[in-house]
Amino acid sequence: MAQLVKLQDYVSRYEKDIYQYPSRFVRLKNIQWKSMRRDWERYQGRKVLRQELIEEIETGQGPVTLAGRLKSWFFRHKEEEWPDEFAVNEAFLGVNEVAAAETIDDLRRFFLSELFAFQMKWASSTSQETSYVDRKYFYDELLKLLLQGLPDSFLLMYKPVMQLKSAPVELELILLTPTEVWCLTFLEKEDQSVFIGSRDRFWIKRNGEKSSRVLSPLLTISRAEAVLKAVFQQAELDFPIKKAVISRNGFIDYPEAPASLEVIDSRRFLPWFQRLQGTPSPLKTAQLRAAKALLQSTQTTSTIRPEWERHEGSWLYHTIKEEEEE
Q: Which domain of life does the UniProt lineage start with (predicted)?
């Protein structure tokens, strides 16, 4: 699962320490998945034993054999152990519906859904600050697709607001892989729409017999590339930049596209996405340096948490401060 390091202008834990939180997220995710899967497998075993005992009783046999008595003992103790062990999941994600998963695929989908909510928390709050999140992002299908479909080592900046000398500039999608950074812009219109590209300010969109003009995505993506180049140059970084215009549900006709631009429509999106998914490389130092430089150039709007103001003079405040300074 890719990591959401910046969302809009919300405060992010990653901007506080980009070298610490990516590896911490991967570690917590792996620990939680193993714990949740273990609990689910134990619960499935308990259901099987329960069904076998019911069948034995219904047939008049009952747990009279040694095997039956062992099953009865095992079943009874699993009933007692389940709530305490299950609390591990509740502490991390607030989850108590694991038992509802019928298959391992159901469990994995549920886990990713809960992990998405956890990511949103990390992308909008720290131990001291919080930002007010637009609820639309919790239902953003594209955001979920990118986070849930890409590897842990990918870092995503979703519609970040960059603070430049002149004025704040909102970009679209910045995706940092271990070896390069992608500037992405998506053309998400009606299904089967055809976009006719050119170097003009506007492109033509056709859907059936209807035709209209849309602002050229080259303007957005060129602005993003210029911002990234300026940030990397100031930080003295040499990190490859790639650009792509993507339409997942339509077609792009742009035969004269610049060689530096990837044009990815519905015919090419799945192979391109699968190629990214197949990138097994771990987090790289150059990648984290690039992410740090970009995060330091973003705008952040946040407020101090009320509970932090109340406890600023307490031992808890100083304990957390000491941990963050280590």
A: Bacteria
Q: What are phi and psi of 9, to 5 degrees?
A: -110, 30
What is the rounded average pLDDT of the residues 54-67? Answer: 56
To 5 degrees, how large is the angle CA 141–CA 142–CA 143? 90
Of 249, 252, 251, 246, give the one whose Cα is nearest residue 272.
Answer: 246
In a domain, 34, yes or no: no
Q: Which region holds residue 27: left if phi is over 0, alpha if psi is between -120 and 50, else beta?
A: alpha
Residue 171: name the closest of 301, 1, 134, 163 by CA. 163
Mean pLDDT of 144-154: 95
State how far the alpha carbon of 205 is from the alpha carbons of 131, 209, 265, in Å: 37, 11, 14
12 is written with which tokens? 């992010």
Q: Which amino acid is residue 294, in one-letter code?
A: L
119, containing H or E segment? helix 104-122
How many residues does the structure list for the chain?
Answer: 326
Whole-structure pTM value: 0.80
In terms of average pLDDT, the best of 41-55, 92-106, 150-164 is 150-164
The closest alpha carbon to 228, from 298, 177, 178, belongs to 298
User: What is the pLDDT at residue 48?
Assistant: 57
Let me know if residue 157 belongs to a domain. yes
Domain that holds residue 237: 3-23+109-325
Total domains in the chain come to 1
Q: Look at residues 50, 226, 9, 35 and name the one whose alpha carbon lies nearest to residue 115.
A: 35
- Cα separation, 121 vs 140, in Å, equals 15
Locus of tokens 């209209």: 212
Residue recorded with tokens 């150039």: 297
Higher pLDDT, 86 or 4: 4
Average pLDDT, the chain: 82
